[in-house]
């Protein structure tokens, strides 16, 4: 599967879930829907900053910028998003890692690597804004490999 095919599939799934996510929002009224988090792996391989937004009772979207990557994804919470509870989630994340950003000798001709990641884990939405997420799952770049994510931040 080429990078373009993976990107096309990811975009289709992302847009589909975004459209579904706009149907209901009644159970999350009054909740802090935005978050800025420090990330290790996940959407931003190595380290980075992630912005995420709760868009429905079951779905949050995220965008990340890190060293040396950019990424986007979503998480689905089957039991719904609730404050002050540890919540199970699954999702899909796509990250483009820049090989040239890591190439200190200037010898790389590779434009980058697309990593598609299926996060399976838990998240915590604190009542006073604390945000925590931990997940593991399979990732696909040139081959399948395990991937993970640790995210700590603040909801506003």
If you had to describe this structure to a student in words, what would you say it looks like?
With about 160 residues, the chain is mostly beta strands. It has one domain (about 5-20, about 30-155): Porin, CATH 2.40.160. The chain contains 2 helices and 9 strands. Strands 1, 2, 3, 4, 5, 6, 7, 8 and 9 form a 9-stranded antiparallel β-sheet that branches. A hairpin with a 4-residue loop joins β7 (about 120-125) and β8 (about 130-140). The protein starts with a helix and ends with a strand.
Spell out the key features of this protein:
156 residues, Porin, 2 helices, 53% strand, mainly beta, 15% helix, nine-stranded antiparallel β-sheet
Helices and strands in order:
Layout: H1 3-21, E1 34-41, E2 44-54, E3 59-67, E4 69-76, E5 86-97, H2 99-102, E6 113-117, E7 120-125, E8 130-140, E9 144-155
Antiparallel strand pairs: 1-2, 1-9, 2-3, 3-4, 4-5, 5-6, 5-7, 6-8, 7-8, 8-9
Write down the CATH topology.
Porin
Number of strands: 9
For the termini, the CA-CA separation is 39 Å
Order of helix and strand elements from N to C terminus: HEEEEEHEEEE
The CATH class assignment is Mainly Beta
Average residue pLDDT: 82
Supply Rg. Answer: 16 Å
| Integer count of domains | 1
Largest sheet: 9 strands, antiparallel
> Structural class, judged by helices and strands?
mainly beta
Number of helices: 2
- The low-confidence runs, each spanning 5 or more residues with pLDDT under 50, are 17-26
Strand content: over 45%
CATH architecture: Beta Barrel
Instruction: Estimate the global geometry from the Cα principal axes.
Output: globular
Helix share of residues? 10-25%
Keywords: Signal
Protein name: DUF3575 domain-containing protein
Signal peptide: 1-21
Organism: Gillisia mitskevichiae
């Amino acid at each position: 599967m080429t990078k373009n095919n993976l990107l096309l599939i990811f975009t289709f799934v992302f847009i589909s879930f975004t459209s579904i996510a706009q149907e209901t929002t009644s159970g999350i009224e009054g909740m802090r829907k935005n978050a800025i988090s420090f990330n290790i792996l996940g959407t931003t391989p190595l380290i980075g900053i992630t912005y995420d937004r709760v868009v429905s009772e079951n779905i949050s979207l995220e965008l990340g910028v890190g060293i040396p990557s950019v990424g986007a994804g979503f998480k689905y919470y089957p039991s719904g998003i609730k404050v002050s509870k540890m919540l199970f989630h699954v999702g899909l994340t796509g990250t483009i890692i820049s090989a040239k950003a890591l190439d200190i000798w200037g010898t790389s001709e590779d434009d980058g690597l697309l990593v598609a990641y299926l996060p399976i884990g838990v998240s915590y939405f604190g009542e006073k804004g604390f945000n925590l997420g931990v997940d593991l799952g399979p990732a696909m770049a040139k081959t399948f490999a395990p991937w993970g994510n640790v995210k700590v931040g603040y909801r506003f």
